[in-house]
Fold these 3 entries.
Entry 1:
Amino acid sequence: MPLTILVGTQWGDEGKGRITDWLSADADIVARFNGGDNAGHTVTVKDQTFKLHLVPSGLIHPRPVGVLGNGMVINLETLLNEIDSLRDAGINISPERLLISHAAHLITPAHRALDQAQEKARQQGKIGTTGRGIGPAYTDKTARNGIRMEELLEPGSFTTKLTHHIQETNQVLQSMYGAEPLDASQLSEDYVGFAKRVAPYIKEVSIFLTRALSEGKSVLAEGAQGTLLDVDHGTYPFVTSSSPTAPGALVGLGLGITPVARVIGAAKAFQTRVGEGPFPTEVFGSIAGHLRGTGANPWDEFGTTTGRPRRVGWLDGVLLRYAIRVNGLSELVLTKLDILSGLETLQICTAYKSPKGQYSDLPLGPADLAPFEPVYEALPGWQAEIGSVRHKQDFPAAARRYLDFIQELAGIPIRLVSVGAERSQLVDLNA
């Protein structure tokens, strides 16, 4: 039963979309298991760039079937727009090719309005939410007050529940936040139309996946966000509202303790994050400008979902080892190594220090990183462009040393290295 799980090891944005694309060429099924349209996966194929937020990025290949798991929260407008845009690009996104779990939850305009009002009210204590309604949708789910996808199959009761949900949220928006109320009648009418279009895609995906695995089919579980945004294991409270770690894949897809063939962690060759929260290795000035880019290129460090400039910094080996442990990673893929070309010296954080001592592992997890300063190891950079490299021996010596250092620091092998945004710009270190 070959199940492969791909997760991010940092604060998301590690380039999982293009790694999913690479792995999907041999997969029968590609399944998203957490999050919503706050995630963004970008895949570049020749002159086409696909920016996806809900549909598994593996569906750009003709072979795999896509699954949206029960661990997700789904914005129907975003989903239908993606389906339409992919069809316009000649990609088959039929109900036979995309399955949505009956137990996934719905994000409504009320969730989005509440998310934005709450974030505004936090003022200096902002979390950095995308404002897409993710937190409120998961709050309703946990409070047993959410709307599940299966309810879209009964238009009458769905309309009643959605209208009540919007009216209830309006009271909170007006009384607590002084925000404008939403038009419950109009939104309910709109969403009945969305529901009719989405209904053919709704299935019991746990049965589908379990049968597929028992038949020997290959399933790729595609994570969104990253380990450091996990609601339990991330830099709380600056986290997402779901579990983007590898164990979350089993819960988010309705699978038991299935034998897992591989657990792959995606990491950038440096570090980035969007929004608020701790970032020990953050850099500024000219180095930050080099790592981030200007925004002129699709691969520059600006959010796929929000367009916000990402904070950037050196690779953090302490947090990388933490992600390896809590996910049980078997291998790494390293992305954006090409961005480091042209820097004279590279830094990698190998430990943290505080007045109480030096640590190679976090004593109480990553929630409070304020007491710590990074301890760096300096490595020589390289000047040559590496976008055309396809074999490890063709890398500059300094680039090979950088890869070997990360591998030794991580304690697990690096399998793939990306050297550019295009689908073919990957180096298989086992080849």
Entry 2:
Amino acid sequence: MKSSGDRAGVNPVLRLAALRRLHVYVGMLIAPSILFFALSGAVQIFRLHEAKGDYRPLPVIEKLGTLHKDQVFAVKKKRPPPPPGAKPAAPREAGGPPKAAPKLSTEILKWWFLAVAIGLAGSTLLGLWMALRYNAQRRLMWILLLIGAAIPTVLAAL
């Protein structure tokens, strides 16, 4: 007698094996993007991709931040300096209230999201290692990984 979960006549063990195989294939294909978004997002949590005061991020950090947010691998062009003798623009909100310090809950949330981003990157790296180390189809795993890295790289370069 067949169980209710086995109505189609497919062995549930074979179905689970097929789902697991599909999970590995999709995971290898999207792992490079997951790593990119986890790591570039971690940098953006504390706005390390934006210039502030004396701080100037490395150009590659700015570009990766722009790619993460706007899907463009380019830094936004800065406005050219005004020509000599031009009247300076009036400052926006001159004398406005000082910016309030972020709430404690906001700071804790930022650190939580940083931990989540690190955990996501670590988990993805662990999955990559397992797929490349313990899968009989290592060549296919490498091909999927390279395709997963090449697609966004080529599209960002266009």
Entry 3:
Amino acid sequence: MEKMGLKDTLNLAHQTLCKAGIDHALIGGLGLAMLGIHRATFDVDFLIDGENKTDTMNAMSSAGWTLAMETENVLHFDGKGRVDFLLANRPHSKQMLKEAEQTNFGIKNVKAEGIIGLKIQAYINDKDREFQDKADIKSIIDKTANLDWPQVKMYAELFGEWQFIESLRKKK
């Protein structure tokens, strides 16, 4: 099966989720792009409510994607293009999805504060991601004028990372 480009993958995945009535918001590299932070990315990453896991699996499979990996918190699809889902199973991530903002492209995006929280969680869980995720967090802090610092602090403190985030804030 020939892979689609990133834009086509994004559009088809978004349409598939909309058709299935599954609330979703961009995160990852494309989520950063919606915040004005550009870096190379090869997949589409969405945050969805964990309660929609089965419906998402069914919708994506029906649309021609192949489930490549499934865990309690993540779904990875391949085939037409790479689409990853982070499952919001806890109150903080469910709130991130609820507060996601509509973009000019008609797709919701997790707010900057939420993306910072997800980036912290990602590098805590996988040390190989630490350098890139910390660079992404620094870019968000540098480019976002009115971050909700109490919210950022709440996410950072969940993982014992407030001191690091505060050091980036002071350098701004």
